[in-house]
Amino acid sequence: MEKKRSVSTDNRIDYGVILPVFLLCLVGLASLYVALSHDPNHPPVLQRMVMQSVWYVIGGLAIIIIMHLKSKWIWKLTPFIYGAGLAVMLALLEFYDKGLAASTGSKNWFKFGSFTFQPAELMKIAFILMLALVVTSHNVKYRNRNLSTDGFLIAKMAAVSLPVFVLVMLQKDFGTMLVFLAILGGVFLMSGISWRIIIPVVALFIVVGGGTIYLVTTETGRQLLYNIGFKSYQFARIDSWLNPFHDTSGMSYQPAQGLLAIGSGGMFGKGFNISDVYVPVRESDMIFTVIGENFGFIGGAFVILLYFILIYRMIRVCFDTNNEFYAYIASGIIMMILFHVFENIGANIGLLPLTGIPLPFISQGGSSILGNMIGIGLILSMRYQAEAQRDGK
């Protein structure tokens, strides 16, 4: 009897999702050790390694707890989670860490002694849940879809998104804003809205994107952006992306050094714990430069492969689960992780500008790890709860 229960439980757990996450966490610990060990500012390496490990454990516990939550509980809790997230984001506008705001230009961190926390990382999950609830409840009510009902759904999604976007804008965190837009875009595309609406919206985004490129690359455009509130440091980041070696003593120093570090790794890398190229704040959004320098193209490709396997397994879980609410949750989580990976690695190799977005499960940061682990917990709960229903429990 005990053996039968064990087999049944094993069937509920998707090890195809757990394995790549576990391997990415190991890569994260190894990369963090290298980054901290070669930091000339001599950070407390052991203390930070232990803290990162603690966050992995906390994230693992969160996965176990969330995996056992039934969809109806998540459904009922979602409005409260979303409301609490907005309240915390609002409080952040007053009680943000002044020191970090002065150095980064963003008001997105709480600080309690030596402990810092970024509420936006958990707000991403709350936002995904609320969008999933809104879309699911709308689609259940309006089975016969038309342009009018689709327009109503868009209005609902906008009402949920607007408070979040306003609060993130007030925190002056452009990178996080892009993540929220990616989440909204993913759920929007999967929501069943007519292509007669989706195609014009996509075209509009292309036009806006092209216009933005024009604005940030011309003097006239930049002057207009200055007048509406853009800051010099934001343009400096763009200049550093367009020409990383134009001012290596200033803002371009970090991306230029990152490219040199990755390039110096070659095909197979220099070997573990070798760091000949200094990259500032390497343990955070520049952690991929450690992988590139130590393990070269092969190591970087392996990490990217792990992310693709993870995304593929999450998509499989989504298709295998006959639950509309879960499907929209999965869409948001997949877009969140995919955009993080795309933006972070793209910025490290010079394809995209730096926005301060961490690499999921690898970069240092407890709030990022916890947010991503909660997302994985929600994905795993889909398979776990579906198999539990089949077992009649």
3D structure, described in words:
The chain has 393 residues and is mostly helical. It has one domain. It has 15 helices and 2 strands. Strands 1-2 form a two-stranded antiparallel ribbon. α6 packs parallel to α8 and α14 runs antiparallel to α15. The radius of gyration is 22 Å and the shape is globular. The chain starts with a helix and ends with a helix. The mean pLDDT is 86.
Which term fits the overall shape?
globular
- The sequence of SSEs as H and E is HHHHHEEHHHHHHHHHH
Please list the strands of the largest sheet in the order they lie side by side. 1-2
- Runs in which pLDDT lies below 50 for 5 or more consecutive residues are none
What level of helicity do the residues show?
A: over 70%
User: Main β-sheet: number of strands, strand sense, barrel status?
Assistant: 2 strands, antiparallel
Kindly provide the radius of gyration, computed on alpha-carbon positions and rounded to a whole number of angstroms: 22 Å
Classify the beta-strand content into a percent band. Answer: under 5%
Count of the separate structural domains: 1
Number of helices: 15
| Mean of pLDDT | 86
Structural class determined from secondary elements: mainly alpha
For the termini, the CA-CA separation is: 15 Å
Q: State the assembly state of the protein chains.
A: single chain
The number of E-state strands comes to: 2
